[in-house]
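Encode chain A's predicted structure.
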Amino acid sequence: MVLVGVDTGGTFTDFIFQEDGGWRICKCLTTPSNPALAVLEGLGRISAADKPHVVHGSTVATNALLEHKGARTALITNQGFEDVIEIGRQNRHALYDLHYHRMPPLIPAQRRFGLRCRMDCTGRILEDLDLDAAEKRVREIEQAGIESVAVSFLFSFKNPGHERMMGQMLGRLGIPVSLSHEILSEFREYERTSTTVINAYVAPKIQGYLRTVLDFMKDAPLRIMQSNGGSISVRTAMREPVRTIFSGPAGGVVGAYEIGRAAGFNRLITFDMGGTSTDVALIDDRLPLTLESSIARHPVRVPMIDIHTVGAGGGSIARLDSGGALRVGPQSAGSDPGPICYGKGGQLTVTDANLFLGRLIPDHFLGGDMRLHPDKISAPFGQMAAQTRLSEIQVAEGIVQVVNAAMERAIRVVSVEKGFDPAEFTLFAFGGAGGLHAVFLARLLNIPRVLVPVNPGILSAIGMLLADVVKDYSLTVMTSGSCDPQRIEEMFAPLETEAVKDLFAEGIHRNRISLKRYLDMRYEGQSYEILVPARGDDPVAAFHELHRRAYGYCSVQKNTEIVNIRLRAVGVSEKPELKKGELSNEPLCEACFLGNRPVVFEGRFISTPIISRQGLCPGNRIQGPAILVEYSATTILPPGAAAQADAFGNLLIETWTG
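Encoded structure for chain A:
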């Protein structure tokens, strides 16, 4: 079996695969009009005698949501509740913006249908489903050319009978149908309906995309990365595509977690800078999971790795605003037309600035496979310099500093704003552009150490191969009083039976399955919950401690309640081995030196050695300034920084050595 990891990004689509007993990597420019084309091009380059086993992370669902280019979707719900997704929580995201407008719902009012039926909060039927009215709605949906349907009835998590009946009636239309009790079996009708609507909205696009890839791969196995840090079968991904929305960034965090843990670092701030955006996350001895995510301001209440994203990448466009101030991003040149130096772009980007400053080496970009055009960026920098009355070097350094400030703010969101001191963590830098900015960013945040893995530009694809099979389950139970162990066993039993059955269907043997229990708990009278691991005999004590840690106090005399139970089923999969070498005191070999070139640091040119990272041996030490080149990325060591290759080939960079 040949393992292949595939990650579709905004600028490049990345591949890692086995060949001739070793690992090979390649990158293809992403094809925004049809992302499958780049995936098929890369898979076509992989000549494997054995059948490939592909784990794939895709941005198809994300882009469909961000660009509002999903399917023509309808919503069926209880009569009188058709406007739940439009009313929402009435949260105002820009409190002092007098011109603020809410994002329109994904389904307009004319495609939201109400039916007379009702359950109470215990699942007891108060009013049965009107089958004649339901049949009429099915005919209307068929005549309206609807491509996908979301069904969300009140309290269906307690009794899904009406939703199942509606699903059977809609089944004859031959279009995707998303039932809320299958997508999110929890209370809070707005979040449950929103999550179900998103699933329905992206389902046809995901299904068409995955069928294209499957047709190319014929009968080779394909798994899809989820937002929660695990993979699922392509069949499950087609049915529940909402779980794949942040699959690419999640793969990067999983890769950072596994590689960082092997290298001896359990506290990491991950910094993934690609072509269109930067994703950051904080790992404090475990993957950070959240249930409070949103995309384009639409709530998505499925477990996801807690990742914060900003529009700052190598392709981020630099411009002057109406007041003459320099702005960078969030607009991106993407892969087409791309930065000016790619040959087709017309607007200056962060990549152009790094090339102008001498920090990108044209002869070694993607191992020399992709040509850069330094001659095309001189005139645009001259024009912006004339507009700003700055020198061309000041403009280029200004672009880099502005984008660094945006990424610094992003890291503060996941660290300082949550009570963590960045200085106590290691910055784990990856992505095609991460190594160009990592040390400068670490210095802004007083982070003493940067870790750059081998092949940083394709780490998200590596992370997909390191991910286990993971399935998450939840159920609203609303149990007050003490947490009786016997009662907890009874509540979890149906979920655990379902989980084991599902993982069997995913091809996982019982001895490779682990089940992790969690409880959503709160004090009686509170509106929101805390996620509590159900590991010991006294989850109430664990809840008090987590509440104190989060809010600074706890009230042990107050009664608690369990709102939801959650089960995380993990199937341990076959993974590539992280090879460890022996550290040595040998000096850097001569073959690693590829020459010197002038590079701009703090406004002046400094002669800087260019070093091939592939030739480094464990233990080799490099003093900045230096530029380290490899196929997937470039890493900058500014003056005052130093790096050493560890036993796994990672670069451990001291941000200041003096």
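Residues 590-654 form one domain.
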